Amino acid sequence: MDIGIDIGGTYTDGVVMQDNEVISYAKIPTGQDITVSIRQVLEQIVSGINKKKVDRLVLSTTLITNLLAQERKFPVGLILLPGPGVNPRTLRIKGKSIIIRGAIDYRGRIIETLDEQEVKKAVEQLLLEGIEYIGVACKFCQRNPLLEEEIVKIIKEDYPQIKCLASNQVHGLLNWVRRANGTVYQLMVATEYQFFIDQINKTLEQYDLTCPVFILKADGGTIPLGISAQHPLEGIFSGPTASMLGGLAAGGEDLTTVVMDIGGTTTDLGLILKGVPLQAAKGAIINTYPIPSRALAVSSLALGGDTSLNITNKKVCLGKRLGCAYCLGGPHLTITDALVYLGLSEIGDISLAKAKMESWAYQHDLVPQKLAEEALELFLDALEEKLENIFRQWEEEPAYRVWQLLSAKVDRPRTIVCIGGPAKDLGELWGEKKGWNVVIPQYASVANAIGTALAKTTLRLDFFADTQQKIYSTNIGGVHGRVTNISKLEGARDFSKHLFQEIRQKWNIIDEEVEIIYEEGFNIIRGWETAGKIFQIGLQTPPGLKGYMSKGGEI
Amino acid sequence: MNKTGLIFFPAFDWAISPTHPEREERLLYTRDQIFEEGILDNPRITEYKPRLADLEDIERVHFCVPDVVSQTTNAHLISVGSALKLGDALKNGEIKNGFAMVRPPGHHAMRVVHGNRGFCNINNEAILVEYLRSKYGIRRIAIVDTDVHHGDGTQDIFYHDPDILFISMHQDGRTIFPGTGFVDEAGGPGAYLKTINIPLPTGMTDDGFLKVWREIIKPALDIFQPELIINSAGQDNHFTDPLANMKVTANGYAKLTEELKPDLAVLEGGYAVETALPYVNLAILLALAGEDYSCVIEPQRHKADLRQARDVSLTIDKLIAYWQDRLNQATPDKESLFGKDRRYKRQRSIFYDTDHILEKQLETVEYCPDCLGLYQVSSSAPRELGKGYSIRGISIPLYACNSCQERAYEYWERIKVNNIRKVEYDVLYLQDKKNNRYLKESR
Ligand SMILES: [Zn+2]
Ligand SMILES: [Zn+2]
User: Fold this and answer.
1) Which domain covers residue A230, as residue numbers?
2) In chain B, which residues have their Cβ closer than 8 Å to the Cβ of A174?
3) Which tens digits make up the pLDDT trace of A332-357?
4) Strands (E), B14-136
5) What is the mean pLDDT of chain A?
6) Which residue from A40, A484, B139, B438 puts its CA 20 to 30 A from B408's CA?
């Protein structure tokens, strides 16, 4: 059995799944203290089940997103070692930063050494500004962490009161701006996140749940709760990720589809291609600051079921959310009321929607029927525009190799999986107008929890080795080092697979399969002689879900 | 639109041969630098996906022997297709300028293509120019070639076209491949001074580089008034380039880019894969995007002697004086340049360094008062190994007059009949740019 709990901003959903069937579920409003909400959901869903038979529990939580969104004044500073390149003063880097000497190049060679006095001066200056946490970010630190390590050592020895973190421990992605931001954000959330982990562990003990616990990652995989302490940012955007997986669980294994999750104020849209959710090409962005974590390519439309209807110049237009739908006792007519009025939805009290729609339309010399139709038209137009953007982004993803450009392209989907609020009704309207297949999952209201429960522990390793410089690096923070005895691609492949195996054991991944996503070798030629090789190998556990709802979960 | 379009296509799975300078490794460190900078997250830069060019786009420019497929790989089609895609983005108003950071390069590929010359098979910029002219009706385009080698292929293709201003600044042909690009190569009789060659002394620094730009190229552009500027952005003037002897820095290239303001830049040569390309490519991209490039300082710069010798400065000053004088002179009229037999003829040999081919060709251009006139070429290239070909081609200019166009089809019928009677050529070509129609007859 698998338990999935999705702690959203408004609701917390939980399910217990056995053989891809929901055996119990619950939905409660999310409270102030999310551990209390988890406890309440567990109370309802695990009461009748044998806890010894629970294989794992997966949590998807907005905790990290919330912590980051609060934008409280965190006393975090950065020491930056940019070396040659873009003027570091023009970069989108979070927090107070000080630029110092010391540089590494793309091969991991030190091209400028540190000045210890300058490091100390920088720390003193940050201390004067009341800073208690310091991140250190050096370009190409994943190819050679030495300068970052030296700085951390100086800080630890001379300023033990400061908590510091080097960017090479955060992520290995080739993008130092994202690594620098990731370092700042990780320092910001570390303490509270650790507190959360401790709380969760206590709670589960109370419920006799001894199974392994995982956190849903933004890329649709999971990470063991304990290990997530070192990578807390992986848990961002859990809500949209969970709903995409929920859509996938209902849609089935090989499906190519759009997933639409309509909430009160926003609509999340994502793509699933042959059973694999599409990843954002460059990574996640938090409050306009790019970070290194991978995330699903979910786009949001600023319209939802509670979007209010307005009239300007005798024409209907869409406004902000002013409350819930009129037919549910809200203050104003909404998209949901338009559906109800036209007999396209059974939400709420139709007589409320009817009376209000008519009086409002006549007041403006308009025909109520037309008014409601035009409002829905606006919503569908916005949806169409957004989908076009999403498709174009997907089709325009850069390619750096001939084979990638020549490989067969998946056709644009013409299926839509609809989750949440009036998604079913709007989805059916869309399907009817555009000739799309519409899939409505059976447990749409707890689809997020289902997606969470079925998420796999996935691992991706982007391995890079330079045999002349004798270094290797990866996309995973802290996983880099020296290589001495690799000369051929086979050797590099074995080395990377071994590395993958080590991490996999730590991560509790049971799946035996390893997929090679790509592998390539470059000759380093100096003066017509081969001076070494550079290898790039991508490994992953197969993406997708642990299981899919039987009969597609459709109704 | 305020965006700079970028297509980065390093062709990580394509090489001329494993140890050739044009190999997979060439843009690897450029990738590292550009990605590591985080510059692709900059809202002023939009990355596009490359695409393949159509065969027609290549036939519009080249007589590929015996056909396009034999002279190109998919990598070639993607490299030039990337330039075309940015051209479309520019004309659609999505971007204010664009940089095709692509390989393989193209500026040594001439009109007739028997093989690979100077690492090039097909000419990216020429194909871009003819694509833009035929699709968007642009007429006057300037190409500024800042590669250290003479852009002899581009020169060849537009040598008789007065609507294309081709300017190449390069290391003097007496000291470097391809050994051409002297001041007397100044365009055919119908396009006099629409080719400007600036052969530069070895040891030129940023100072000389920028002075030549400001005092020859800029005034020439001001006179020509192009609708569009394309930069063949070779990077081998760099002080660390292994194949050339100049002293230009990444900042020098960026400064020139900033002032030239090309609408589209296309990477050409540059073979200092570690010490130059990561920095020069980055600096040019920043300059195009209007970002600060002053911190792109190569680590080697501290050790290098980047002073310009006095005699180098003097030679450059003399060249500037020469060109300023020449640009201010009145252009002789076309009719008199064509001479009394009203026909331009040129016989020459062309060496293909990569493929070891020696091509012999004869070109003719007919005088026409109303258009560029018909261009014809016959060319043969025996090869040591494998089959050599002999070809004949006729080219109808994009803005040909009706009588030239009709005559071209008469010639076409005649040479086809003649070639049946007495086989002289393996392949015959009719390139009708005006109707976007490309005919070919193979034996
Ligand atoms: Zn060159
Ligand atoms: Zn004519």
Assistant:
1) 2-69+192-241
2) 32, 35-36
3) 999 999 999 999 999 999 999 999 99
4) 45-47, 63-64, 97-102, 112-113
5) 92
6) B139
